[in-house]
Design a protein that fits this description.
By secondary structure, this protein is of the alpha+beta class. It has helices at 3-17, 30-34, 37-51, 89-92, and strands spanning 22-27, 55-60, 72-75, 79-81. The protein has a four-stranded mixed sheet, covered by helices on one side.
């Protein structure tokens, strides 16, 4: 793979992501997964569907401080939430709800 191919992949991803108002990245790496990240993601998907906004909930790999998981990053705000649980969403991210 060369640099032009990588640039094309990056551009395709930027175009795909532009369809959404918000991107919610949920760490699904081992530490976060063992702390219930799958339940967090399920709750976020349901909340995103109910919000009426264009929200993309994505599974990601490790985002950093594993001892603070599950981790959720909300873009475009670039806010990293730590120790998230399924009930956290009700009070923490009103921008997209």
């Amino acid at each position: 793979m060369n640099i032009e191919e990588l640039d094309q992949i990056a551009e395709n991803i930027r175009l795909e992501n532009a369809k959404y108002d918000f991107e919610i990245n949920v760490c699904m790496d081992l530490a976060c997964a063992s702390q219930g990240a799958d339940r967090v993601r399920e709750a976020l998907v349901k909340a995103a569907e109910a919000s009426g906004k264009k929200v993309f909930v994505r599974r990601t790999g490790c985002m950093g401080p594993c001892s603070s998981g599950p981790l959720v990053r909300v873009d475009p705000e670039k806010i990293l939430y730590q120790r998230v649980n399924p009930g956290t969403r009700k009070r923490s991210w009103p921008a997209w709800q």
